[in-house]
Write a structure and sequence with these properties.
- The complex is a heterodimer of chains A (about 110) and B (about 120).
- With about 110 residues, chain A is mainly β.
- Helices cover about 0% and strands about 50% of the residues of chain A.
- Chain A contains no helices and eleven strands.
- In chain A, the strands form two sheets. In chain A, strands 2, 4, 5, 6, 9, 10 and 11 form a seven-stranded mixed beta sheet that branches. In chain A, strands 1-3-8-7 form a four-stranded antiparallel beta sheet, with no helix packed on it.
- Chain B is mostly beta strands.
- In chain B, the strands form three sheets. In chain B, strands 2, 5, 6, 10, 11 and 12 form a six-stranded mixed beta sheet that branches. A four-stranded antiparallel beta sheet of chain B has the order 3-9-8-7, with no helix packed on it. Chain B has a two-stranded antiparallel ribbon with strand order 1-4.
- Classes of the chains: A mainly beta (about 110), B mainly beta (about 120).
- Chains A and B meet through β5 and β10 of A and β5, β6 and β10 of B.
Chain lengths: ~110, ~120
């Protein structure tokens, strides 16, 4: 099993450009999440999904969109990148339902917006 | 509002010394509790978890944590720290019974462990 993979690992964007981050999991997990990690801020939830075809907003959703067309994939989109979106982005998945609730994380995508 | 507090932003220990990282939560009920570790440049990895039962739980890499209901705490411990344990440690909770049957983990802000030789 590859677990949770993220594509790409690094990216540099100019302000106003768009991009999509791909998260894939091969554990048949129902729940998937996108977080951003900034120094001193810990992990902040952007969006999450509790199943194929569903998405919901997290703590910091502005400027991002997501889609979960297939159970194994969770896409995070930036329509018009801003320097404030410079961050490390992590995807995670979990079984959901009755548990056991622990999350499995991808290796992260380091995004720089200039 | 529910919250998870890791009061120590940084902790510095000498190699071979013992370690305790603090985690406190503010909820009415007992949540599910987790500790994750993040090595530099990597994603988070689960160290251990508490759901119910024995309040002292063992995890991977020789870590353990103790749940104390009276103190709303779930502190992580390691008897002897090595340089390879230098990393960021995150406490997280899941509160059951949220509307719709879904759940959102809440993370503390993390504690950075520095190990001196």
């Amino acid at each position: 099993n590859a677990g949770v993979t993220q594509t790409p690992k690094f990216r540099v964007l100019k302000t106003g450009q768009s991009m999509t981050l791909l998260c894939a999991q091969d554990m048949n997990h129902e729940y998937m999440y996108w977080y951003r990690q900034d120094p001193g801020m810990g992990l902040r939830l952007i969006h999450y999904s509790v199943g194929e075809g569903t998405t919901a907003k997290g703590e910091v959703p502005d400027g991002y969109n997501v889609s979960r067309l297939k159970k194994q994939n969770f896409l995070l989109g930036l329509e018009s990148a801003a320097p404030s979106q410079t961050s490390v982005y992590f995807c995670a998945s979990a079984t959901g339902g009755e548990g056991p609730y622990e999350q499995y994380f991808g290796p992260g995508t380091r995004l720089t917006v200039t | 509002a529910q919250s998870v507090t890791q009061p120590d932003i940084h902790i510095t220990v000498s190699e071979g010394a013992s370690l305790e990282l603090r985690c406190n939560y503010s909820y009415g009920a007992t949540p599910y509790l987790f500790w994750y570790v993040q090595s530099p440049g990597q994603g988070l990895q689960l160290l251990l978890k508490y759901f119910s039962g024995d309040t002292l739980v063992q995890g991977i890499k020789g870590f353990e944590a103790e749940f104390k209901r009276s103190q709303s705490s779930f502190n992580l411990r390691k008897p002897s720290v090595q340089w390879r344990h230098a990393a960021e440690y995150f406490c997280a909770v899941v509160l059951l019974g949220l509307p719709g049957g879904s759940y959102i983990p809440t993370f503390g802000r993390g504690t950075s462990l520095i190990v001196h030789p």
